[in-house]
Batch of 4 targets.
Target 1
Amino acid sequence: MAQDKDITPLNPVARLSFTEKFRLQTWLMGIIAFAVMLFLLVQAKFILIALAIAIILFSLTSDAINSISQLRIGRFRIANWLASIVAVILIASGLLTLAGLVISQINTVLTTTLSYTDDAQRAIAQMFAWMGEDVEASVLTTVRSIEISGYLRSAAGQAGTILSQVVLIILFVGFLFLERVWFHTKLENLMDDPAQARRVSYIISSIIRRVNHYLLVKGLISSVTGVAIFLLLSVFNLQFAVAMGLLTFVLNFIPSVGSIIATLIVTLVAYIQVPEPQTAVLIFVLAGMIQFILGNVIDPMLMGRTLRLSAFGIIISLAFWGAVWGIPGMFLAVPFMVAVMIVCSHIPAARPVAVLLSREGLPEEEFPLAAPAVPQDDSDAERAYQHAVGAE
């Protein structure tokens, strides 16, 4: 009994102190884990960027392959492996063609940039002539102090890595197509619960569907915008029309700021080549109208309610991934944000994050409660998965 009297409950202050220490340790471990993850993202960005692009290309063509494999030509049916091989060949051909076009345009711009260096420096200084001759002379001196050759060498080095990045993307895409056959089997064995596996499949399919729709609409709008800028510069008989059209196509994938940067670059290129400021102003107005009509009118009409992302969240995502991965990270910022919002919306503890990332505070709906029964065979599993995807 004496021993029982010595046993006293923990002091509430001591319990509170223990809870605070546990929370502090949790926060510290979270900060350390985030720092380690950020370090790995920066150090392995060459491989991770290629892997992210490969996953996006794989998701874009995976649904098309499923549709093609269900087609019948008479009594024959296109095999899944044959459709996958054709898809990999088409992706490889498209990537290599696009890389060759980008490299050729970069070489063209680099070889002719030096001849426009003096004109470009004077044109930039003349933009500040209204502030006085002293300011114009100071700006000209500052611009001429910039080492143009160093930036050109850096740009040439970046162009040299494009081909190696494309080859790595093609390899990743090929291996992803090899693994897709066993994905659902691995997922069910990993979850060890058919209902949970269907839930994860639903989340993945929702991410793929939204990202695919975003990329297809953005690709269409960017293509039309790039062609329009090419025609605009061609009408004025300006050089670098192809390069500016390609640059506009690429920069339009960066939301909010990409179209603004593209318009300013196109205007600056026109201003350097044409001595009349009125022509540069006209090109600026026409390019701005093209960007506004296609980006602010047509794009939202085609996009609909696919993204429902917060504009401020998009800017934060652009800043973060731009700081981590540079320009490629800015291209991937929106797909990453879509994936984070959908995943967090299905995790009760992380749902506030999804609410903050969504535009109206209405993120992805929960997994449908009226899920089909546990499948008995592979055909039932496929029908269950299709039902879960279509239930949205």
Note: The CA atoms of residues 42 and 324 lie 6 Å apart.
Target 2
Amino acid sequence: MVELLAPAGNFISLRSALKSGADAVYIGLKDANMRVNASNFSLEDIKEASEITKEYNAKLYVCANTIMKDKDVERLEKQLPFIKEYGADGIILSDISLIDLVCENGLEAHISVQENVTNYYALKAFEKMGVKRAILSRELSLEEIKEINKKLKESDSKIETEVFIHGAMCMAISGRCFLSYGLYGRSANCGDCLQPCRKDWKLSFEENETDDVINFSDCDDESFIISSSYDDSYRTNFFSPKDMALIEHIPELIEAGIDSFKIEGRARSPDYVATAVSVYRQAIDLYYKDPENWQYDPKWMEELEKVFNRGYDTGFYFNVPYEISENNQSKFIKKDIAKVVNYYNKIKVAELKIWDDLAVGDEIMIQGPTTGSITHIVESMQIDGRNIEKAEKGSNVAIAIDEKLRESDFVYKLIPREDS
């Protein structure tokens, strides 16, 4: 059965992924991974993360996939014995000098997408070096992936393949981009990308006598904002591709012989993780239950559209990505409104301290390191034992909710976007 691999940038996301059905979770080792803006995990955190993961009989992979200098390799060499002792299963790496170190410490070596693995021969070379798995380049088509896996099977290769099936796409091949470093001195290749590609850009060019390009349009102004293009053939954010979503193509992906389906998003919120994992879990399980009669459920995409996204495309799997994207196109705004003060197990009631109005019928989201991320529609509320329809900010209010909450869990109200 294919592995469903989920991202976790913190303990709330970790719990959310596991409760939603992830078979494995990948986290970032502090100062050594491609998501500096995620919370990331220290050595001691990895110990706790491993213990939580094992509660769900899942695996834990640790990202150490930045460009590394001598001092970085030497630091990681000292950390690897502890990562193994604390119960992690593997290391995701992009610097091939780490393969021996990882294997010597009894950990699986997984080649990062940063390595841009695009062919069977690279996989065979990595297998000889002791690599357990390689994440294939996002630039491969489904047919190319099928062909690679077919050759691996025919050669009795044991190396596993992993692909991204959901999440952000980068403007550069395998994320090898210098735009952030060139503009701000913050290196994407060291996990510190400020994503200038997601901004609105102005396109212009200057003519000179050697130019072969001639402007045949009726517009004399050749410096324009892409979103205001005169012929409607361009849009804004032309460096910013849509997010990838392969939820409609689960059967083709499984039948291509892929070992692990990966969801991108260690810098995204716990509700994003919970939603994405839950949706793909349903689709995968439905396939294995009855492959011949598997049908795509439109409700899956409706759920995915509720959380952060830049609109969805299928990446390079079937063609070149054909649309660019603006910023978040989620259908809801997540507003911080309360925290959990107490939860009464016997009567299944949570007490909330609210700093914004809350009403019966509102949809809320509760997140916490042990709770994970759950959504709930408020069906009843009380203050001092009295039923109410609406509570004003500054109140302590009781709501009925079956799932156990914890003190200091965060509470958000989901507000539909006006333009959704």
Note: The chain is about 25% helix and 25% strand.
Target 3
Amino acid sequence: MIVSKISRRLASLSLVAASIVAFGGCASQPTATAPAGTTGAASPAANQQGLKAVRVQLSFLKQSLDAPLIVAMNKGYFAQEGLNVSYERGFGNADTISKLGTGKFDLSFSDIYNAMEFNEKNPNEKIIAVAITQNKAPFAILSFKDKGINSLKDLAGKKMGAPAGDGPRKLFPILAKQVGIDPNSVEWTTMEPRLRESFLLQGQVDAISGFSTSALPGLLKGGKKLEDINVFYYNDNGLEFYGNAILARASFVQQNPDTVRAFVKAYMRGLQDVLKDPSAGLDAVMASDDSKLMDREAEKVRLQVALERMFLSPEVEQNGLGGVDPARLERTLKQTAEGFGLQATPTVADVFTDKFLPPKEERTVPSDRKPLS
């Protein structure tokens, strides 16, 4: 599936040159950010007495996808709920979950499917999702038009690339079954995560698996245009995976229910604000970058994908932000257990609880939404 909708909106942007600067410097971002501030200094809320400290880890480097968190901090939503929130960058979903499990952080943004694998290996430190922040996962296969891969069936006999622990790679056999190809007909090449897009750009592989929000800007950095790239989303091909969620250790949730409830409420307010005015949300993220190495146009690509494919869906419009369709989630848990080779399939209640979500009327999708500019 070609990201034509995004192409039309962003064709006029000089993404390639801008992204080179951004992604060359993105790895140099600080590994931690100051509590409750946007430019490294603590906000007035951080100096108030009686606020409960909450340590949060992102799934990766701070990106435009983190706009709801940044906006909620800037506007004092967490402080209004009695919280002093600080955050640090992550190093990928699996690493984020591992650190959450050790208690280094109180809450994290990562995906429930990697959490399933962690829980099976660590039954005494289980992790649970308390809100789904991305209704659809950005799991995708990406290739170039000139590779002749115009459908997923064209992958048969091709060489694909991804890191060994890549979630979409581990789930590829399930995708292959859905589209009717033999998963063993694909030859995999393994590389470090930072080299994934380079392998595709250099022709060492014919396609890559990964998150579209991570891979697209990297490919644009390498000189490609959006119209050159074919993106095949798992969710468009028989699978229904959810994206990232707010995760916590089950023990933390049991011991701090009011803290969890307050965090989710404030975050949902930030998400609603970003949906209302995504450009302001993007600006807030850019202003929070002390290194000044993030590139707005590259982050705009990420946020546009999230707005069109991840944050909103008919399910969200009907049920409100943060929740799940239990039947859909159950199906994806079974698929993940098979794809990851887990010994048992967890129940929905094992991986998600809605008891900390605000009432539905407080997490509706805003009707007055501006376009991203």
Note: Residues 257-276 form the longest helix (20 residues).
Target 4
Amino acid sequence: MKKYSLFISAAFLFFCSNLCSDVFLTTYEEIKSAYDLSGYTWTSEKVPRIFVKKIPEEIKKIEGAERRHFFIQLLLPLVLLENEKITAEHDMIVPIAAKKEWNAEDVKIISGIAEKYNIIDEGQDISAITEDEKEKIRYFLDHKIRPVPPAIAIGQAALESGWGTSRFVFEGNNLFGHVSPDPSKGIKPKNWSGNQRHIRIFDSIQDSISAYMLNLNRNRAYNKFRWYRRTHPNNLSKMAEGFDKYAIIKEAYVGRLQSVMFKFGVHKINNAKLDSGESANVIEKVSQPYIN
């Protein structure tokens, strides 16, 4: 079975190297085989475009450093892919907003994205606003629509999911503990009762990462993180201080995030880049051509 999996992974990698830029895998054997064939390790600075939809349950059977490194390998391409989309969105909207005069189409595009990032109120008319108001929108479009450092994203995913072993990961593809907007839907934690909000279910790990990054980029609770990201772009420890409102343990959470990043070497991945290939477009979902 292992040899067959290796053959399938090798054939698919060869096929995709000629016809497409992204590879999507599902089973533990396929994923490990693809990593071995591509020479991808958790410290690789050039990351192959190998993506997963779900965390394989076999991760619960491996322990210690092996589990941590596999978890990083699984998530890093997905985090980098999401950052590609954020960068593409930033590079599309900033030049449009920079125009001195906004035509009707410009207003429509700017309004949609400004609402998405909580820069303006839903339904707010910006067609006849002052230049000062325009400048404020321009500033926040540039300030909020920025990638999340990979070490921060994976450090928080490790904290929130127990390095990928939480039942919410397997039952709901939920890496960051997001709750469902509908209290009657989602996964009910064992220690919750009544109408407390349940844990949100995502279609894929990618969707969980997308929701997490949007939350960091628009929620006012993370104003401090966004400011440190802008003013201290190479200081992961400083950026971690911006998460004192992420959990009920407040400042203690900051210390735990810093510890995860530096004690377990997660900071080493922060300069990683996806391998060459056509950059992802700004899309709601990534196409998923899986091997079954």
Note: The two ends are 14 Å apart (CA to CA).
